[in-house]
Each structure stands twice: as C-alpha cells, then as structure tokens.
Amino acid sequence: MFKKLPYHTKKKIYGFLFITPWLVGFLLFFAVPFVQSCIYGFQDLTTTVTGMEGTWVGLSNFSYALFRDTQFIIQCAGSLRDLVTVPLILVYSLCFALLLKKEYPGRTLMRAIAFLPVIIGSGVLMDIMKTDVFSTSMNSAESTYLFSASGLTGFFESMGLSAGLIGFINDVISKIFDLTWRSGVQILLFLAGLHNIPSYVYEAADIEGANALEQFFKITLPMLTPMILLNAVYSVIDIFSDYGNAIIQMIYNTAFTNVRFGYASALSILYFLMVAVVLVVLYLAMKRFIVHAED
Predict the structure, then answer these.
(1) How do residues 71-116 score in pLDDT, each as one tens digit?
(2) Does the pLDDT at position 127 exceed 80?
(3) What is the pLDDT of residues 199-216, one digit of tens each?
(4) 107 vs 120: CA distance, rounded Å
(5) Rounded alpha-carbon distances, angstroms, from residue 213 to 24, 92, 204, 205
C-alpha cells in the first residue's frame, strides 16, 4: 500500500521518519526537563532522604533574580556584550569557506581540519584547553593566551589609532583561537551554500563583464543571506550555551554548590527567555535582507 502513495506524500513520510530520533530525543531530554524546571522555578526545593520536596512560592524566585540579585543582571549584560563576536565569526567563516571552495591540492584535508574542532571539541574541552593548555598561569589573575597582540600595540599607536580601537584589535587577535574553534559548523554551512549557487549565474555575470568583486556583492552575498541568518542564530546560541559562560556557571553553582534548586531553575528560565528575545530580535532585523533563489 505504501508504494501506491503519491510521491510528495512519500517524501513527507520519509522526512518524518528521518527526524523521528530527534523528536524522541527532544521530548525525552528537553521537553520533559524543561517543563519540570518551569515547575521547580515556582517552588522552594529542599533535599530529603527520599528526594526533593517543594514548597510553592509563586513568583518570588523570579522577582528576587530580577530586582534583588544584582549579580544576575550584571552577568546577563556581560553575556549580551559577548555577542560582538558574532559578526567576527560570520566574516571569518565566510572567508574560510570561500577559500575551501576553490580547487587546489589538499583541499579535502583543509576541509577536514576546518571541521575538526566540531568533531573533537566541546565547551568543556575548549575551556580546559584555553585555561590549561594554551595559556600560562601568571602571578596575577590574568592569563597569557597562545595568540596575543600585545606586541603590536606600539605599531598601532604609531599609526595614530585611538586607545579604544587598539584595545578592540588586540582583543580580536588574542581570541583568534576561540574564533577558529567556534567557526567549524558555520564554515560547513557557508560551504554548502556556496555550492548551492548555480554556476550559470556566474557565467552570465562573466558575459556581462562583472568582475570578481561585483559578483561577490551582487551574487554570492545575496544568495548566501539564508545561510548568514542560520549561522547567526547558531553562533548566538553557541555563545549563550558555552560552558564557560558566567551565567551558566552561576546557575550551576546556585543549584549544586548552594543547593538552591528552585532559584537555579528560575534563573534558567529567565536566561532561556533572554536568549529567545535576542533570537527574535535578530530574526526581525535580518529577515528583510534575506534573498531566496526564486526571488
């Protein structure tokens, strides 16, 4: 009977079959814990011999986090400040994808190396490597990273750059390891988007006399706008969910060090809502620039 179904119906069935493992994982490992955390956020939980007992406290956990716990607001502002690295990740990933698209000896190896951090890496591993492997402990609270631009400060000053701009450049160069580590998935997605652009579009542009720069800004970049939005959303979520994020560490310590599971659940829900608002604003700001192939 399945063979008699229309082709489009078969495609829908195959699609649902492919995403069934994800749906099961979503329901078991996200939806159920998320609902449980929402319930915990309205309670004052205490540990007992048999488990945890909760006392309903209403919105007190949320009001305390928003109006009395100044540390939470400060950490939220710090996480929003980290979003400045998203444009850097997108530009870096796009440039790397453009290089990997060209045909040259060793291209397959370079693609594997570009995606290697995604395969072997995790937030925990990256934090360990940054603090223990690629940095050297100093007598002060600061660490010296493997990539540092402090030696270029004099050169930048001789060029007449302002102190704020020099600090920004130094910070970007010093975090080149993080930038490379965070760009594996974005490079892969940009590379898929580049291969999805029809070759005849570039052939027509060549016939019309368009140079490489004009082709990039009038063909490549507009056709990649869906991938730019997708990579921007992925990068924002990756930054907010990083293991070294101060809010995540704060929530973890609140729950497992201070044993305040109800308050930690409330912090988690507020943090989730903040991330959701950022993603909605990002989508609304970028959707007007999205160009689809049929446009």
Answers:
(1) 999 999 888 988 888 998 999 899 989 988 887 787 778 777 777 7
(2) no
(3) 899 999 999 898 989 999
(4) 20
(5) 46, 18, 15, 11
- d(CA 206, CA 194) in angstroms, rounded, equals 17
Distance CA(42)–CA(265), nearest Å, equals: 8
Q: How many other β-carbons are positioned within 10 Å of the β-carbon of residue 43?
A: 21
> What is the bridge-based pairing of β-strands 52-56 and 43-47?
antiparallel
Distances (CA, A) of 118 to 96, 134, 166, 255: 15, 18, 31, 29
Tell me the domains of the chain and their CATH numbers.
70-251+285-289 (1.10.3720.10)
Two tokens, residue 121: 């890496």
Mean pLDDT score of the chain = 82
Tell me how far CA of residue 276 lies from CA of 66, 74, 232, 279, 280, in angstroms. 17, 18, 14, 5, 6
Q: Give the up-direction half-sphere exposure of residue 293: CA atoms within 13 A in the CB hemisphere.
A: 7
Q: Is the pLDDT of residue 166 over 80?
A: no
Distance CA 139, CA 44 (A): 41
Rounded to the nearest 5°, which phi and psi values hold at 55?
Answer: -115, 125
What residues are paired with 70 via a beta bridge?
Answer: none
